[in-house]
Amino acid sequence: MAETIVDITGLRKVYPGKTPVIAIDDIDLHVEDREIYGLLGPNGAGKTTTISIATTRAIPTAGTVHIAGTDVGAHPAIARRVIGVVPQYNTLDRSCTIAENISFHCRYFGFSSADAKARTAELLDQFRLTDRATAYPQQLSGGLAQRVQIARAIAHRPRVLFLDEPSAGLDPQSRIAMWEAVKGLREHGITVVLTTHYMEEADALCDRLAIIDHGRILVEDTPAALKGSLGGEKIYELKLDHPQRSEALAALLRSLDGVTTVEPTDEGLRVVAHARDGLLAHIVGMASEYGLRDVATSEASLEAVFIKLTGRDLRE
Ligand SMILES: Nc1ncnc2c1ncn2[C@@H]1O[C@H](COP(=O)(O)OP(=O)(O)OP(=O)(O)O)[C@@H](O)[C@H]1O
């Protein structure tokens, strides 16, 4: 049986204040060795807080995190040796070259000068950065800088790499290159825990994922199983000329065979229905009497799973 390498139990984080914020509300999470595990959820769901606690940067209100058997709260210095972190923002040292950024990280973790040099050369090669070794961070594109951040984060050979929103701000091509780099980490024995609010990223990259909202895990499974849980339901997004006057149309749509829910959105209505021949034509026929401007259909996607669970769009 695979080893559980990240073990989060009963985790809770309340930020105190006049109105205390419950950022994490009793999360249990278990990640197996060499998995790529995703925390998918909208802004403010509690993803960054979870990663901050797991990587010793924040103290939980309750609960524990064990990484490779070490209690992170009780033994943060030991835990840091088995953890690598790429935070949400570029934290490369701008006054050092790419090679220095990596080798100084090795030295910080106790490597000899020769070992740090050898490890840096190995990582520059692994991440196809050798020709940029003497460049400075500000000379790199966002995609390359992100690859350097990942190379640096795993320089001390951690067991688990935490990536907080790894593709924020990257263009689509750099995003795909970053996904390939992350997938390659498995061969090096590294488990990955990442946060994202891009469902395409969660779908393309993760072996398993948890959908998080308001500090709670709503569901956890493989992307395929989560999409399969929709049981053939599709989502139809209707844009209307007068979204605020859509109640009569909503009532009509609810009476259609196969329709399970109809909800108002900022631009019109969202219809969730079991797909069947002719349904789209029925929906369009009814809605065109009510100023239909556009209709978009989404197949089983993680976005659709999120909408079904919360009634909201991941981007809302
Ligand atoms: N230092 C803090 N003090 C008070 N509230 C905080 C603090 N940090 C986060 N929060 C609140 O805790 C909740 C969870 O935030 P968190 O940053 O973990 O979410 P997230 O899912 O990572 O979102 P994002 O992608 O925007 O970082 C939010 O309501 C946020 O406003």
From TrEMBL:
Keyword ATP-binding: yes
Entry keyword ATP-binding: yes
Source organism of this protein record: Bryocella elongata
Name the UniProt record assigns to this protein: ABC-2 type transport system ATP-binding protein
Gene Ontology MF term list: ATP binding; ATP hydrolysis activity
Transmembrane segments: none
Similarity remark: Belongs to the ABC transporter superfamily.
Pfam families: ABC_tran
ABC transporter domain location: 6-239
Alphabetical UniProt keywords: ATP-binding, Nodulation, Nucleotide-binding, Transport
